[in-house]
């Protein structure tokens, strides 16, 4: 069958526009005139393989998406996300595309290489709640999930691991837009994908992870969503539900009532809130909201507490569940850098194990870890991954 | 001429570290690479300008020729079974080599297995750095002392050869003489 250059041209146009790249920049990348580039997008000027490789790299897409008709991509979900969130910067759009690639890699490693089987997560959108209160739905779903996952009332020490164990792909990455806390994409092939913005407070990230987990549980039919810290979403009720879920899931009401009692003077409130925040690894604001919901704190006290700087937990007092505690300081520093760039320690282990078992090539390992050959030699040696040569 | 060889970035870097890219010409190889490899050097240009400059000089001096990919090459790359187990740069070198009957240079044991299994190229079409250096020794382009230095340099650049390269090369030379 003849190759369809018109279909390819349309894909190139959509991909370019989604990353806010103007056609002149694309033409410059290929070292051709603007008209020649426009003709490529129209399908009237046949693109060469080399040119397509350059554009696939510029547009952060797998070349397979452009040359095969049935490549299982999340293109429509991503396009919809970018359309609804037009203010997303060019760099954040690129970051989201790279995140999608990592989810696809992770899915390939988990399902095709290691044959992991996951139980499908419930779809609470279809659950017959006997009311239409979104916040209450979030609260009830948090309770159901705690029961389903046998968490009882204990603190969740690693929300990221818990989410991954459900077969959900979750990564952190520093985005330019500090107003974004996280985002969710329902990838038609890789499944539920969550990205948490690394700019946030570490404990805030835990809350964001639980929040996005709620979107996976309730809102997968939406295909995608971006959560903003301060913004009026077009569907605010979904955000109220996700916030309610996250608060109830991370800090169960029953446990608070069982293990703690209200403070009697102001300083005891400070100490109580910090204790709870440390134990459940959430920011103080979340604890204050939970205590308000329990009616332990009234509006006047709440206003006083949210402004109290003693409730700000410093960075070095927090624990990042994504970084294993047993790493040397050198590797810890590097892994923090790697995670900010968008990788996870879990993903690194998965990819390196695939290489050790002979399932992927060394060069593929470097690609997956977003490393250049030069950096790869150094970093992988520190992780005791060596290029295996025949000798 | 011994033939054409398609080369990837790792192999180019190793030859850069030991300053022995000229051995290809001496041994009668014509070296080609693809846009993917060029892109890899370009993407790391800011952090590793020396690597990029080295690659650019090889291109401008004609020591490496860029072999252009067609759309059909990309379609074929995507159709290779288990294509996601190898990098796109590797796949491009493998496909081009197979298409024009060239050899491939790689040192990764897993890549070699992949080529044999999925690209169905004979092992005689795969060149490895160790064998390449021994060949250069056997043809008197390298001596014992140079091989020892090369092995040391490669080790410093995280490429360990689990044998005494000079000893192995000398052994083969003696065996050849005995034959």
Please outline what is shown here.
The complex is a heterodimer of chains A (391) and B (179). Chain A has 391 residues and is an alpha+beta fold.
Number of strands of chain B: 5
Structural class of chain B: alpha/beta
Strand order, largest beta sheet of chain B: 3-2-1-4-5
Q: What series of H and E elements makes up the topology of chain B?
A: EHHEHHEHHEHEHHH
CA gyration radius of chain B, whole angstroms = 17 Å
Shape of chain B: globular
Helix and strand layout, with pairings?
The complex is a heterodimer of chains A (391) and B (179).
Chain A: H1 5-18, H2 23-30, H3 34-42, H4 49-58, H5 63-67, H6 75-84, H7 90-113, H8 134-148, H9 159-164, E1 169-173, E2 180-187, E3 191-197, H10 202-218, E4 224-228, H11 236-250, H12 253-259, H13 266-280, H14 284-293, H15 299-306, H16 329-340, H17 345-356, H18 362-368, H19 373-382
Helix pairs in contact in A: 1-3, 2-3, 7-17, 8-11, 10-11, 13-14, 14-15
Chain B: E1 3-7, H1 9-17, H2 23-27, E2 29-33, H3 35-43, H4 49-60, E3 64-66, H5 71-79, H6 88-100, E4 103-105, H7 109-119, E5 126-127, H8 129-138, H9 144-156, H10 165-178
Parallel strand pairs in B: 1-2, 1-4, 2-3, 4-5
Helix pairs in contact in B: 5-6, 8-10, 9-10
Structural summary, described in words:
The complex is a heterodimer of chains A (391) and B (179). Chain A is of the alpha+beta class and 391 residues long. Chain A folds into four domains: 5-71, lambda repressor-like DNA-binding domains (434 Repressor (Amino-terminal Domain), Orthogonal Bundle); 92-130 and 154-241, no CATH class; 254-317, no CATH class; 329-390, no CATH class. Helix content of chain A is 55%, strand content 6%. Chain A contains 19 helices and four strands. Chain A has helices at 5-18, 23-30, 34-42, 49-58, 63-67, 75-84, 90-113, 134-148, 159-164, 202-218, 236-250, 253-259, 266-280, 284-293, 299-306, 329-340, 345-356, 362-368, 373-382, and strands at residues 169-173, 180-187, 191-197, 224-228. In chain A, strands 1-3-2-4 form a four-stranded mixed sheet, with helices on both faces. In chain A, strand 2 (180-187) and strand 3 (191-197) form a beta hairpin. In chain A, helix 14 (284-293) runs antiparallel to helix 15 (299-306). Chain A starts with a helix and ends in a 9-residue tail after the last helix. Chain B is α/β, with parallel strands linked by helices. Chain B folds into two domains: 3-127, 5'-nuclease (Rossmann fold, 3-Layer(aba) Sandwich), CATH 3.40.50; 130-178, no CATH class. Chain B has helices spanning 9-17, 23-27, 35-43, 49-60, 71-79, 88-100, 109-119, 129-138, 144-156, 165-178; strands at 3-7, 29-33, 64-66, 103-105, 126-127. Chain B has a five-stranded parallel sheet. In chain B, helix 7 links the parallel strand 4 and strand 5. The longest helix of chain B is centred in the C-terminal third of the chain and has 14 residues, at 165-178. The radius of gyration of chain B is 17 Å and the shape is globular. The model of chain B has no long low-confidence stretch (mean pLDDT 93). Classes of the chains: A alpha+beta (391), B alpha/beta (179). The interface between A and B is large, with 41 and 50 residues.
